[in-house]
Amino acid sequence: MSRGKFIVFEGGEGSGKSVHIERLHFPLPDAVFTRYPGGVPVGEKIRAVVLSKEAEGMDTATELLLFLAARAQLIAEVIEPALAAGKTVICDRFELSTMVYQVYGRQKPEYQELLAAVSKTINKGCAPDATIFLDVTPAIGLTRARSRPEGPNRFDNEELAFHERVREGYRKHIGEYPHAFVVDADKPLEEVWQNVQKAVQSVL
Ligand code: TMP
């Protein structure tokens, strides 16, 4: 049996990832949909911790290690078995998020080496076949994100400069991924959706 395709969505706050991923459930009923951090019980618990307001001021190394722990569990429990079983996996964020938030956002270039070494082990060879980067202007995305019904999370509340650095990181590294699609997410939702569909269809 051939391995399934692994499609990753990336983007800053308010880029609309979750809306488009939700819409893909209809055309892709057999795909496995998951998210990082989260997707499995242990990962959802870690997600609740890292996004909580109580974690304000968390040490940046602790934050990095929690994200990596969440990813290790998600890959072991969901992503690797699904790909091995030939299923398409759609994941809301993957390793590029950790690079752009914990290295660029947190301004910790020294984490890059550790991140690469740990990722090599925990990713178990799971690398995205396609990465769809929804590129939103941070000021626009933050306005959308901060008006979410569930309220802003710890990252939504970071200063604009943090989100500018995250975007810079995305723009710098997205080209390193095979089949990387950069979609202008400042555009109206339906236009973005057309481009997302085209990107997904071109890979599957
Ligand atoms: P979201 O996926 O619902 O946007 O929320 C996850 C938040 O966690 C988002 O602000 C980005 C942040 N994050 C990191 O800082 N590092 C990571 O490795 C991942 C996956 C997410």
From TrEMBL:
<feature type="binding site">
    <location>
        <begin position="11"/>
        <end position="18"/>
    </location>
    <ligand>
        <name>ATP</name>
    </ligand>
</feature>
<dbReference type="Pfam" id="PF02223">
    <property type="entry name" value="Thymidylate_kin"/>
</dbReference>
<dbReference type="GO" id="GO:0006233">
    <property type="term" value="P:dTDP biosynthetic process"/>
</dbReference>
<keyword id="KW-0418">Kinase</keyword>
<keyword id="KW-0545">Nucleotide biosynthesis</keyword>
<dbReference type="GO" id="GO:0004798">
    <property type="term" value="F:dTMP kinase activity"/>
</dbReference>
<keyword id="KW-0547">Nucleotide-binding</keyword>
<keyword id="KW-0067">ATP-binding</keyword>
<dbReference type="GO" id="GO:0005524">
    <property type="term" value="F:ATP binding"/>
</dbReference>
<dbReference type="GO" id="GO:0006227">
    <property type="term" value="P:dUDP biosynthetic process"/>
</dbReference>
<dbReference type="GO" id="GO:0006235">
    <property type="term" value="P:dTTP biosynthetic process"/>
</dbReference>
<dbReference type="InterPro" id="IPR027417">
    <property type="entry name" value="P-loop_NTPase"/>
</dbReference>
<keyword id="KW-0808">Transferase</keyword>
<comment type="function">
    <text>Phosphorylation of dTMP to form dTDP in both de novo and salvage pathways of dTTP synthesis.</text>
</comment>
<dbReference type="GO" id="GO:0005829">
    <property type="term" value="C:cytosol"/>
</dbReference>
<protein>
    <recommendedName>
        <fullName>Thymidylate kinase</fullName>
        <ecNumber>2.7.4.9</ecNumber>
    </recommendedName>
</protein>
<dbReference type="InterPro" id="IPR039430">
    <property type="entry name" value="Thymidylate_kin-like_dom"/>
</dbReference>
<comment type="similarity">
    <text>Belongs to the thymidylate kinase family.</text>
</comment>
<dbReference type="InterPro" id="IPR018094">
    <property type="entry name" value="Thymidylate_kinase"/>
</dbReference>
<dbReference type="InterPro" id="IPR018095">
    <property type="entry name" value="Thymidylate_kin_CS"/>
</dbReference>
<feature type="domain" description="Thymidylate kinase-like">
    <location>
        <begin position="9"/>
        <end position="194"/>
    </location>
</feature>
